[in-house]
Amino acid sequence: MSEESLDYEDARKPHEITLQHAIEISSLVKERTIGPDLPEPQDEEEKFTASTHKKEITPKKPKTPKDQKITTKLIIPLIKPSLSLDYELISATFLLRDAEEKRKKQVRQHVNDMQERQLAVLRDNAARQREQQHKLVATRIAEKQRNDALIIQEAEKQTAIELEECERHMAAMRLNAKRQLELFSFQCVAKYHTVFSIKYEGVSNTLSAIKKQSFLPCIDYNSQLTELVEEFDQITNRIKTDDCSAEELKNANSLCNKMDDLHNIINEEFVKMLKQREEAQLEEQRKMEEQQALAAAALVAQLAQTPAEPTTPTRTEHAQALPQSLPVQEQVVDTQQSTVTPQTPPTQQRQQPQQITPQTPKTTRATHSTVPAAVLAFYQEIYSFYQEKVESVKPLQTDENMKKYRFACQKAINIPLNAISAVSPQHLQDKFERIFNFLNGQPHKTSDGQVSVNDHPLGRNYCLLLTAKRFVNQGETAISSNPQAAFPVASVVVSLWKLIPEFGKLFLAYIFKDSPFLVPLRGKSIEEYNDLKRQAGITRLYAAVMITNGRRAEGPEHPYGLEHAWRWLANFTTLEPLPDISATLILEMLQTLGFNMCRAYGKQFTKLLIYIQREYFAKLAQVDEGGPRTRLEMLFMNYLNQNQIPEPQGTLPPSFW
Asked: Where is coiled-coil annotated (predicted)?
């Protein structure tokens, strides 16, 4: 109930008590008890108390502050007791009671109306509250939906961003993988290209030798060689357009194998031609000897038929008769020695030093006045060892069933050897270990399984020869174009030389075979060795070997030190100089190891250079007017003025690896 209804109940209760008291005393009241002219209620009360039977009236409860508030609003009449009956008072009482009843009804009606209004207000309030709650719930639902939509939208955006980022990452990974594949393919094709170039150069040199020897024309071989080169150029062009796949690598490998096969076929034909020509020369020599014997017999018979008075020939006539047979003998000897050296008169042959070709030491001779015997003995020792190894591996080289094994061995050696560089000590160590471990018998993994030098009794000798040859080829190809590449290659060569002395001898054999000037000897055919770039690369590698240390693990001792450079420089300048090649070799040798020789020999080295400048340059100026001689003279002038030669770039520190 509301607060107004509670106030009404509290106000009605005193009136009901008053009326109840009036009813109880109505029989005793005879006169008015209300009015201003009546005596004080206290006096009347004392009289009434004395006349009654001392009826005790129950004391009222103390009024609460709430009751006091209500009584202040109502006027409660004080009924004075009277012994006489007053009908007017009774009537007034009845009227008062009726009025009270009416008032009660009005009050109830008013209370009911108030309750109805309050209920209506409560219902309206409840309805408004419910409506507000519905609106609030709807608002919250809408807000939640909006928040959910925003969350979903944000999640979708984040998901899209993550998907985009993932897609970019995947695209980057695919691009990186593609680039790695392209780089790997390019490196593989580059290695194949290097191998192909080496094989091509070998075939070209063989064909050039055949052409120089005036053998049969090699049109078929030239066409095959041109066709292989064109096919490899097509592969290179496809790589330049980013069109490289595993098929291209297979084709490049196949072309290298075809080039190898073509080289073997040409070599076999060349060997057959040489044998046939040697046989023809021997047959011609035999016929000439027979003719010489017949001529001598005829001369003896003619001298035997003397007249009765014989006229003996004078010394002058006999001296004139002897030279008729001498040119024939000289021609025979010259034919045995070489097929490309032009014939010279006998007097000239006696004056000029005989030229020696390192490939055929059995048919060559050296002039002891220009080449020391110790040098020739050392060369003969190296070449005999080389020939012994070559003869021993011929069964393996000619066996067609072992072609796959030979190719696997070549691949196991060429791949790490072609990758030698001074990028880092670890890189150089890795390439050395791969070559050394393979030569030492450790299996090498291939696409078809594995290969080892122990798979064939001649495998180790074959691989030693192949390794030494490939290292020398590095001088002809890579080092001739990049001088700084000589020092990491030389460091690996020295390290292998210390552990495998046989390899060192074979390395020197191939050096002397490709450049006999480093013995020093002069080949019979100067044109054959007059490729300046190739000879410069070999000389640079040869010089770098003498001043480069190997691994620290093998110790500081060097198998082929600077004393060989001093010996070569002193002996080479005693030979007659040749155009371009002589100045080129001396220049490369001094540019590579002149700094070390200056530090090692000091004043003695200066005296040697002064001697060369005074004695050798005059001879060199008579036959050479090209750029190498000019550069060599400038090097000498700078040294004699500054008393030092610049240290070559690319040298490795003593403790590099």
From this structure: 97-132
